[in-house]
Write a structure and sequence with these properties.
This protein is of the alpha/beta class. The chain folds into 2 domains: 25-122 and 381-491, Aspartate Aminotransferase, domain 1, CATH 3.90.1150.10; 124-379, 3-Layer(aba) Sandwich (Aspartate Aminotransferase, domain 2). It has 16 helices and 14 strands. Helix 5 packs parallel to helix 12.
């Protein structure tokens, strides 16, 4: 057994909460409405060629690799995070708060792999433990390993709604399994999701993604039967949720309500602070299970996740991303023991079993990474440190926006910072008429968001789709202040 001593970088002195204050959602929605009701404020036509020229002059190797990729990869992009305008940037190094591309350009990393690297990228406390396990037994054996037990014990200790844990390969797999588990446990079929949320790309949940009330808009290649028992409700609309629960009760009942506890798209459409508690009460009233998708919020909002922050215990918890600190095969279903026992593995173990699988699930590499990433996050209060960085960044962005007289909206839930400039994900989809008018408007606003993302990158900032920022424990005050100067330079081009 490897006895490598843990890596112990200096502990940050900050011991505050992961989320210092919850944003005023009523005020935010008023600002969202104002943003999308007025003309867009993109990068000026005279400034955009200068932005694009930066890529020509500084990213030649990335451009060549992006073109090479198009010959063997559809569109040249394997996953949505890798898309950048005008072409994908190829990274060679990730460390702490920074990324360096193959041309040698360094960027402040506010993507953080889409959220999982709460400690900062490639943290040594995790990396050395992973190296040791690879040396000892390799990345996978197909058999039990001590770290899958250690990781499960650690998660169960911290998350109020998790008494047992079943590890899987990704957040998408975990949501698929959670829905199957809910239907198995309740004997019901209907699943109600909060519209606009992304819960992975399984057939049954490519429904109402990114924009609420869009139903099967992106369900190309998916038979109607696959989404036949999937429904959606607008976020914050408890009356609509009650109506659907009541109607479903006449048709066999609702198996589960599935939501992101911050609101769809990690709080892009934020929910009121008491919303989750009210959904919990409705689920109890109608006998439906409550599923929290904590793929992003698990551990990023503290070791107990969003459920601990809100004081609301779900029946089933979906985890991913942060679970393994950025290493692959990050997915899990957690929940109450009586529910989770329907996920017993093996052959012919129980007559009431929700079948899930995955040869690489719970592999030693992922589990050792997850265990030590979470131990380190606990030790240094990574969620609190990253949340403090998010607060500092958001305050600075708000000051720049106000000083420059821009209609943009910024707010944060700790280390998850939103910066809405085009408002493409905030368009009103509450009626059929508005949906019919949506396509052209969404296309124009999406292009503006892509151009803003390009301008950020040209100024040394990598964000998620130009509108979401993940801070990490590696983001010192100096890093944030440097970033704010760069954002100010970008907004000077508007």
């Amino acid at each position: 057994m490897n006895t490598l001593a843990p890596v112990r970088p200096e502990t940050p002195s900050f011991t505050g909460p992961a989320v210092s204050t919850w944003p005023d959602t009523d005020a935010l929605y008023a600002r969202f409405a104002e943003l999308v009701s007025q003309p867009m404020r993109p990068i000026r036509p005279d400034a955009m060629p200068k932005v694009l020229r930066w890529f020509d002059e500084h990213c030649a190797r990335s451009r060549r690799l992006a073109e090479q990729a198009k010959a063997v990869i559809p569109g040249g992009v394997q996953h949505n995070l890798a898309f950048n305008h005008p072409f994908s940037l190829a990274m060679a190094r990730a460390e702490g708060a920074y990324l360096t591309d193959i041309d040698g350009n360094r960027y402040i990393d506010f993507l953080q792999a889409g959220g999982p690297t709460l400690l900062g990228s490639n943290h040594p406390a995790v990396r050395e433990r992973v190296h040791a396990v690879i040396d000892d037994c390799g990345p996978v054996t197909g058999l039990l390993h001590e770290y899958e037990v250690k990781l499960a014990e650690l998660v169960c200790r911290h998350m109020p709604g998790v008494e047992m844990l079943r590890l899987l390969g990704s957040g998408t797999e975990a949501v698929m399994g959670a829905v199957r588990l809910a239907r198995t446990h309740t004997g019901r079929k209907w699943i109600i999701k909060i519209g606009g949320a992304y819960h992975g790309w399984s057939d049954q949940l490519v429904y109402g993604m990114r924009l609420p009330k869009t139903g099967r808009l992106e369900a190309t290649g998916i038979p109607r039967g696959a989404t036949g028992h999937t429904q959606e409700c607008l976020p914050n609309d408890l009356e609509e949720l009650r109506r659907k629960l009541r109607w479903n009760r006449l048709r066999g009942g609702t198996a589960a309500v599935l939501l992101e506890p911050l609101g769809p798209e990690s709080g892009t459409r934020p929910v009121a602070k008491d919303y989750n508690a009210q959904v919990r009460a409705l689920c109890d009233e109608f006998g439906a299970l409550l599923i929290f998708d904590e793929v992003v919020t698990g551990f990023r909002l503290g070791m107990g996740g969003a459920q601990a922050y809100f004081g609301v215990t779900p029946d089933i918890t979906v985890l991913g991303k942060c679970l393994t600190g950025g290493y692959p095969m990050a997915g899990a279903i957690g929940g109450k023991r009586e529910i989770m026992m329907s996920l017993v593995g093996g052959i012919g173990t129980t007559s009431k079993r929700a079948f899930v699988g995955g040869t690489l699930s719970a592999n030693p590499l992922s589990c050792v990474a997850g265990y030590h990433a979470l131990l380190e996050a606990e030790r240094i209060n990574a969620a609190g440190v990253a949340g403090r960085a998010g607060d500092r960044l958001c305050r600075g962005l708000e000051e720049i926006i106000r000083r420059r007289g821009l209609p943009y909206v910024t707010y944060n839930m700790g280390s998850i910072v939103h910066l809405q400039t085009s408002g493409v994900l905030l368009l009103d989809t509450s009626s059929l008429w508005k949906l019919l008018k949506l396509k052209d408007e969404a296309k124009r606003r999406k292009h503006m968001m892509e151009e803003m993302g390009a301008a950020y990158a040209a100024h040394g900032l990598i964000t998620l789709a130009g509108s979401r920022i993940y801070t990490s424990a590696a983001d010192t005050d100096d890093v944030i202040d440097d970033a704010l100067n760069r954002f100010d330079d970008v907004f000077a081009l508007v």
